[in-house]
Design brief:
9 strands; nine-stranded antiparallel sheet; 28% strand; 7 helices; alpha+beta
Amino acid sequence: MRHMHNGGWKEILLAGLLVVLTGGMVIGCQTTPPEPDFTPAVEQPVEFTPAHYVTPLTFESGRYDDLFTRDSYAVWVGPEVAQAKYQYAVDANEYIEPGLEDEAARIVNNYVVIECHLESAFSDTSIAYDAVMLRGIDVSLEMPDGRRIAPIQRVIGRVDEEQRGALRAFRRTNLFVFPRRDLWFGRLTLDPSYPSVKLVIERHDSRYAFEWPDASYADPTHVPVTPETRMQQIRVSFNELFQSVRRVSHIFD
């Protein structure tokens, strides 16, 4: 072996290289595309995590406590809700545009997306219509210390209506996108010490709010997970939601 000529060493190295390349090709052929991962690719610092994702609208103060109906609710679209929407689409054999899964994962890991399902049957039809259209209405994410954040994107859906006796009810789904981090300083928008966070709606000197308690403050035995709330989570489909807000993931690249 010590006196092996150069040609012998070359033959051994060439044979070893062929084994490595062949093995690599076999492994490559056996690999299947992974399912979308809606969890961050790298370890993230602890941040605000809602105890539940669906929450009803509540009247807090002002002149009009009946501007919206009790059927109004909002959905916090975090990784778990995104996964539920995706799985429902797959089970229903819905076509999912190539690359949309990656865009969805990027969005939920970098932004807070909230579906705001509003319904109004106010006695004045024009006011009811304007209410679900959010005309003249201020919307913001409010912290316990009073600090507010305006949405960086909002997508307003179509209006549905129906006659209810002498009243006409209007319904509309509105999507709001907020950054998980301060866009200038990179700090977390939602401090993990917050006991809750609200989406506040104000109009005509009246204040309404959707509130989500933090998971560490809420009693897990009282988390409202029901068939109804599960259906509310997937009411807006995976395709409809993320095709509507996907461009936000590139605005601040």
